[in-house]
Automatic annotation (TrEMBL):
It comes from the Eukaryota. This is Uncharacterized protein.
Length: 351
């Protein structure tokens, strides 16, 4: 079940529904899990979600996505220390990058680097899971996360089906799942066997029409009160006084977290490489949405510099920039070649 690959290909996604799997469990455990999954699968196919599942969305501009994710996670674990959170991402490279950030990012109390001793931004354990990991590493992550009382799992859709992970409190869909059925499969990892659960979907302003697509399938989400959560965090050791609302992007806490992220990525060579790889693979995955969703998830609507900021990069990776410039130059050359030919064709009838 964890041996499945997840390169976002339709054939591989459909294979996840088949009975043939690489199991990590004994035959008896696999039989019990199979029966339980059949029940969950039937509910998913009918788009029936448990009443005890609280479903919400948060609208975030592209450049602030990672700072907001870190803030949401920090808020979750400060509110309830003992819990499990699963964060779904679109690509393997993105999982590797976010796993590194969530598990290694350090900050100083009040975000004053020169005065306070640094500590982990998130104190809980962080695991990763995706199809490009070898079988032993997948098994270690799965069993490790399952046995913890308080932990985060960052993963691709390889963890959306077939896994029985107990006591998952919250599902965060940081990257949109695409089809409504994929959304339901993901949130199906929580609120199981009568227990309460939460689901949070990240959306950029240009993606907000995705909510309508979900509503067509009977899935309705309410807005997450992020501003209230945000105002509860101290800046420079002090909680902000009541004042006029300011935009999320300009909030002192978000600006401070973003600055911490960018300094970390700039100073760590390995993290910087992971960020660049994740940036490129995320863009490729973003163009892979199918059908009507292509009208919602359009790369041309994005500011690539802001996308880079969402990976802690101060500048857009030059490799992607050069590739776009090369394509533009090729188009201009092709247009110049076509113009003389078109002029000649127009002059021929006049002779």
């Amino acid at each position: 079940m964890i041996g499945l690959d997840d390169q976002n290909k339709p054939s591989e996604r459909s294979s996840a529904l088949g009975k043939k799997r690489t199991s990590l469990l004994s035959d008896d455990e696999e039989e019990i899990l199979e029966k339980r999954n059949d029940m969950v699968q039937h509910a998913v196919d009918d788009f029936k979600l448990p009443a005890q599942l609280v479903q919400r969305y948060v609208k975030v501009s592209c450049g602030s996505r990672l700072a907001v994710l870190l803030t949401v996670l920090k808020s979750q674990f400060e509110r309830q220390v003992s819990q499990k959170v699963v964060v779904f991402l679109s690509t393997c490279d993105s999982v590797d990058f976010h796993h590194t950030v969530l598990s290694q990012l350090e900050w100083s109390r009040g975000l004053q680097v020169d005065t306070d001793k640094k500590q982990k931004f998130l104190s809980c354990k962080v695991f990763r899971l995706h199809g490009s990991m070898d079988q032993e590493d997948r098994k270690k992550s799965y069993l490790g996360f399952s046995s913890e009382k308080s932990a985060i799992l960052v993963c691709t859709d390889v963890a959306a089906r077939g896994l029985d992970i107990p006591k998952v409190k919250c599902i965060i869909q940081y990257d949109s799942p695409g089809e409504a059925s994929e959304y339901v499969h993901r949130v199906g990892r929580t609120a199981r066997i009568g227990e309460k659960g939460e689901a949070l979907l990240f959306l950029q302003p240009v993606e907000i029409d995705y909510l309508r697509d979900l509503e067509l399938h009977g899935v309705s989400l309410t807005e997450y009160p992020f501003q209230k959560v945000l105002d509860g965090f101290p800046v420079n050791g002090e909680k902000p006084l009541k004042r006029k609302p300011i935009s999320l992007d300009m909030h002192p806490w978000i600006l401070s977290v973003q600055r911490t992220l960018e300094n970390y990525i700039a100073s760590e060579a390995e993290a910087n490489k992971l960020a660049r790889d994740a940036f490129c693979s995320w863009l490729r995955a973003y163009t892979a949405h199918r059908g009507e969703l292509k009208k919602i998830f359009m790369v041309k609507k994005l500011h690539l510099g802001h996308v880079a900021r969402s990976f802690g990069l101060k500048e857009q990776p030059s490799l992607v920039g050069r590739s776009h410039q090369v394509q533009l130059k090729k188009r201009k050359k092709e247009q110049k070649r076509e113009r003389p030919n078109n002029n000649k064709r127009r002059k021929l009838p006049a002779k």
